[in-house]
Amino acid sequence: MKKILIVEDQPEVRELVQVTLSLGGFEILEADSGSIGVALARHSHPDLILMDAVMPGEIDGFEATRRLRQLPELSATTILMLTARGQQRDLEMGRQAGADGYITKPFSPLALIKKVDEVLGQ
């Protein structure tokens, strides 16, 4: 079973993603901040990380992604940014941080499953 880590500060979005992907047969891990997400990823080695771009706290999704990319054991893990900000500048910031792609909020459950299946080769 493929393991997906959701790093998202908004409980409603986290729950939508969790329920949608659980129904798709994935094992789901959740973190509500960038720092917890980095720690959980180091411990659990997920197959995919869905990272909210903008989160309160000491590190946002961009910084969390940069930190994950510096870890040899996670440098090849696919990271998709979840963002309500789809401006070209924001997309470029994500690429520079090391994100592999984007899912723009709001998204439909079907679009989420399709994107996840695509990146995980399902």
From TrEMBL:
Matching entries from Pfam families are given as:
Response_reg
State the UniProt keywords alphabetically.
Answer: Phosphoprotein
Question: Where on the tree of life does the source sit, at the highest rank?
Answer: Bacteria
The yes or no answer to whether the keyword Phosphoprotein is present is yes
Q: Would I find Phosphoprotein among this entry's keywords?
A: yes
Domain named Response regulatory is located at 3-120
Gene3D superfamilies from the entry? Answer: 3.40.50.2300
Q: Which residues carry this modification: 4-aspartylphosphate?
A: D52
UniProt-listed SMART domains: REC
Task: Kindly list the residue ranges recorded as spanning the membrane.
Answer: none
Gene Ontology biological process terms, A to Z: phosphorelay signal transduction system
Q: What is this protein's record name?
A: Response regulator
Protein source organism: Oceanidesulfovibrio marinus
